[in-house]
Amino acid sequence: MDKKRKNYLQLAFLTFLIVGTILIIKHQRSIPYQHDTGFVFGTVYHITYQHEKSLKDEIEKELKKVDNSLSTFNQQSVISKINRNENVQINDMFTDVFDLAQQISKETNGAFDITVAPLVNAWGFGFKQGSEPTNLVIDSIMHVVGYEKVKRIGNTIRKTDQRVMLDCSAIAKGYGSDAVARLLNRKDIKNYMVEIGGEIVTCGINEKRLPWRIGVTKPTDDSLNVNNEYQAVLNVTNKSMATSGNYRNFYYKGGKKYAHTINPKTGRPVQHSILSATVLADNCATADAYATSFMVMGIDGAKQVLDQHPELMAYLIYTDENGEYAVWYSPSLKDKICP
């Protein structure tokens, strides 16, 4: 083959690649973004993804599987049957979440604990009534709280006390977001954002051909939930993000503001200045659980965990000595904070 002919073939092949790439990009841009909304786990979900048609039926089916495993609102779910001490065989979804929860409980020295719900309920009711639960009430509940009081043996759950109750609400929404993301990945969908009750998984780009950007809500005394001012906006493309912080329900002590967060180790509200913990991780269930943990552990405790887990990033909002809002975030998160 002479040199002239070889150059011609190379040029033709290069032209073919360029034209093919342009056509593929043009086709991709012509594919619409779908917007699905619904209700699950006692909250609302919003899912945006680029696909030729709506996959809402399949998404709902996947979320139903999670609900049937982990929802305490569903009386026939695996977790509800465990709480009633029925003889039930756990499924893969429950196993995944339970094992992850126990792992994070150990790594946070019990700051994350899926047996803490009775304490949360006791304090929540007390605050609404303008009174605190008595020491006697708290001490009695503490007998049935503690992640060490429950373990998995094969496909069954064993409790040290039948009164122990499980509640995966601090990890289930994140896991649900992961489950939908896995479904979209199986469909070879490259651009999506899954959000369930504020727990988010993203991939690719949004409708404007830009990275996914998510706001971190600024804590305010806003009981009506009408103020959505953002403290920061983060670029969370190809990451999962979860936020914990009941910062619309403060209590005051010594002139400082605290969020209503219960420490499973003490049975009482924490007195850390942290108001909101946002965590970025490779999966949303992990981000969800650590965000809750950091609310219990406070800034110093959160920093210690983050030092041991460089794959995690956190954005923490707290009140300083003067009662003003302040922020601390992982150094690795700096490039993800949008100007």
What is the helix content?
A: 25-40%
Largest sheet: 8 strands, antiparallel
Report the portion of residues in β strands.
15-25%
The helix/strand order is HEEHHHHHEEHEEEEEEEEEEHEE
C-alpha geometry: globular
Structural commentary:
The protein has 339 residues and is α+β, with helices and mostly antiparallel strands. It is 38% helix and 24% strand. The chain has helices at 3-30, 56-70, 78-83, 92-107, 117-128, 135-142, 169-186, 284-308; strands at 33-40, 43-50, 150-153, 156-159, 192-196, 199-203, 213-217, 230-235, 240-244, 250-253, 256-259, 262-263, 268-269, 274-281, 313-319, 325-329. β15 and β16 form a beta hairpin. α2 (56-70) runs antiparallel to α7. The longest helix is centred in the N-terminal third of the chain and has 28 residues, at 3-30. It starts with a helix and ends in a 10-residue tail after the last strand.
Topology:
Blueprint: H1 3-30, E1 33-40, E2 43-50, H2 56-70, H3 78-83, H4 92-107, H5 117-128, H6 135-142, E3 150-153, E4 156-159, H7 169-186, E5 192-196, E6 199-203, E7 213-217, E8 230-235, E9 240-244, E10 250-253, E11 256-259, E12 262-263, E13 268-269, E14 274-281, H8 284-308, E15 313-319, E16 325-329
Antiparallel strand pairs: 1-2, 2-5, 3-4, 5-6, 6-9, 7-8, 9-14, 10-11, 12-13, 14-15, 15-16
Which descriptors apply to this entry?
339 residues, alpha+beta, 8-stranded antiparallel sheet, 38% helix
